[in-house]
Amino acid sequence: MDVLLTSTAEAFRLLFSGNPEIWEIVGISFRVSSMAILAAVPPALVIAFTLAYGSFPGRRFLISLFNTFLSVPAVVIGLTLFIILSRQGPMGDFKLLFTQTAMGLGQFFLCLPILVCMAHVSLQAADRAAWETARTLGANRLRAFFTVLYEIRFGLTAALLAGYGRIISEVGASMMLGGNIAHYTRNIPTAIALETSKGAFAEGIALGIVLLFLAFVLNSLLQYVQGKGSINP
Amino acid sequence: MIENFRIGFREISKSFGSNQVLEQTAISIASHDCIVITGNNGAGKTTLLRIIAGLEKPGHCEISLDDASPEPWRRLRKRLLKSVMYLHQQPYMFAGSLLRNIEYAARLNPALADRESSVQKAVSWAGLEGLESQSAASLSGGQKQRVALTRARLCHPQVLLLDEPTANLDSESRERTLQMLREFRDSGTAIVIVTHDPGVFSDLATSKLHLQDHRIQADDIGAADVVELDSVRQSKKR
């Protein structure tokens, strides 16, 4: 118990003293995860929209496939991309392995199914008349698409927050694809794993506090957004 | 004022799986028309409107514009979406205020010279003054109907399709809706109304049709050829 208390106290001291190494790790985490989710949002919305409004053979299969991807462990995505990006792999020439780009790719594929599935559910729950009204008023497909997205903005925000929460805290893919290189690919979860294995609990707890704080902020935002979309006046 | 036009829909067929809804039927719509269509539940009235609006893909349909030779529905779909407006039985209100809903339509019409004053004129035309900042979702059924018609007015459609426009409206809202529709018709817009209560539109209608056995039948007017209803229209207008 003493170890936990002293380590936690030391963790807070590290955070508030502005320890550059800790904040550099936090910065890498946010940068990589933010780029990954920003890259995943446009294709996810297009896929979700096509699945919700399209009518084509294989649609149900694709929906099942994306739902299945929700439960794929991060290490499996990490392993698959590792093989593809490694020197003998089909994309080995790009030399992306153990870079932030590789970590971002892993996180992209982790959050894509979450964004697709949650956006798809929101679109299915939305009134189809929104799309039809926009179209019959003369809006082109793109305009009508953005109109419908605005109508389901609460559901989309929830999807965004859930996706971000998933990738900022994942360790498997980042460890395999980034290699946990100090000052370059070491992010919060991989640093926690490393510090714990070294017995440096204070650093691990400090980073854990940042993740917990982030989770709290994301959940508070979600509550706020869902409250705005409440059916109660 | 809408210029004179005529749109003929021929050989309209549509089925949902094994359920044949429309079979080789036809309808002709011209400026100043007000066509009232009746039919039992599931007869295909709404499907027909949605095909005319360009929202529902038919199994087969050919369209002739004015005197031009017929073209497939697919080729003219964009044109239908631009010139035909479909109003749902319960008009959809976009999130936000009543004003946002009306401005949305105004922004889609590049022909409007002064958008702001056009919106204000349209709001007062519909008697919606004072409700501009109210959430559109909280409006009554009659007010939503007026918002939908106001949006239509700002888009100047050639054809206005209405699915049960007076269902669940009180007599005052019904009268107001009829007055607004009359103004649309007088300005040249063709109106097609699907209803279970054709008596409401007896003063407005220029022709009445009945949808039965997957086809449009002439009703009350005794015309054999439902495509060519000109004489009926002319006599009604007179």
Describe what you observe in this structure.
- The complex is a heterodimer of chains A (233) and B (238).
- The longest helix of chain A has 34 residues, at 20-53.
- Chain A is 77% helix and 0% strand.
- Chain A is built from 11 helices and no strands.
- The radius of gyration of chain A is 20 Å and the shape is globular.
- Chain A has helices at 2-16, 20-53, 59-69, 74-85, 100-125, 129-136, 141-151, 153-168, 172-178, 188-198, 201-228.
- Chain A has 233 residues and is mostly helical.
- Chain B is an alpha/beta fold.
- Helix content of chain B is 34%, strand content 26%.
- Chain B has 7 helices and 10 strands.
- In chain B, the strands form 2 sheets. In chain B, strands 6-7-8-3-9-10 form a 6-stranded mixed sheet, sandwiched between helices. A 4-stranded antiparallel sheet of chain B has the order 2-1-4-5.
- Chain A binds chain B through residues 127, 129-130, 132-133, 135-139, 143, 147, 150-151, 153, and chain B through 53-55, 81-82, 84-86, 88, 90-92, 94-95, 104-105, 108-109, 151, 155.
Short account of what is shown:
Chain A contains eleven helices and no strands. With 233 residues, chain A is mainly α. In chain A, α4 packs across α5 and α5 runs antiparallel to α9.
- CATH superfamily grouping of chain A: MetI-like
Distance between the termini of chain B: 19 Å
CATH topology of chain A: MetI-like fold
Number of strands of chain A: 0
Q: Which structural class best describes the helix and strand composition of chain A? A: mainly alpha
Oligomer: heterodimer
Give the domain tally of chain A: 1
CATH class of chain B: Alpha Beta
Give me the secondary-structure topology.
The complex is a heterodimer of chains A (233) and B (238).
Chain A: H1 2-16, H2 20-53, H3 59-69, H4 74-85, H5 100-125, H6 129-136, H7 141-151, H8 153-168, H9 172-178, H10 188-198, H11 201-228
Helix pairs in contact in A: 1-11, 2-5, 2-8, 3-5, 4-5, 4-9, 5-8, 5-9, 6-7, 8-11, 10-11
Chain B: E1 6-16, E2 19-30, E3 34-39, H1 45-53, E4 60-65, E5 71-72, H2 73-83, E6 84-87, H3 98-107, H4 115-125, H5 141-155, E7 159-163, H6 171-186, E8 190-194, E9 207-212, E10 215-219, H7 230-237
Parallel strand pairs in B: 3-8, 3-9, 6-7, 7-8
Antiparallel strand pairs in B: 1-2, 1-4, 4-5, 9-10
Helix pairs in contact in B: 3-4, 3-5, 4-5, 5-6
